[in-house]
Amino acid sequence: MSILTLNNGVEISVLETSTPNSIQVQGDLGTIDIAIKNIASDTMKNADLAGVTIINKVYTGFNGSREGDIYTVTFALRDKTEMELLFGKVQDVEDGLAEVADIVAGM
Fold it and tell me: What span, in angstroms and rounded, lies between the C-alpha atoms of 87 and 105?
């Protein structure tokens, strides 16, 4: 097993066959539920997969199988488009300007 560390600090055990484009989780329903809630959110930005930083990936869906009480789920990720990257940069600038406005308003 390898560890996927998300940007919110959550650590998820993943199969050794996981890659930055295909995260594979195996476990009971509770383990899978935690993985779905976290991987499907914005916590993948700068996540760490066994020492490899996952940058500019977007969750696109999952599929899985079940053997008894053990589930194996594969989460698909894709690279962000140029437009998505630019939008993120614009969002960062807007957030920075809002912080500056709050500081100035508090003076």
Answer: 27
CA distance linking residue 63 with residue 40, whole number of Å: 13
Q: Partners of 74 in the beta sheet? A: 24, 63
The whole-model pTM stands at: 0.74
* In contact, 74 and 63? CB cutoff 8 Å: yes
Which helix (H) or strand (E) segment holds residue 7: the answer is: none
Nearest CA among 79, 77, 60, 81 for reference residue 21: 77
User: Which residue ranges of the chain lie beneath pLDDT 50?
Assistant: none
- The DSSP secondary-structure symbol of 1 reads -
Give how far Cα 85 sits from Cα of 36, 41, 55, 80, Å.
24, 17, 11, 6
Q: What is the pLDDT of residues 70-87, one digit of tens each?
A: 999 999 999 888 998 888
- Segment holding 74, helix H or strand E: strand 70-79
DSSP-derived pairing of the beta strands 47-49 and 52-54: antiparallel
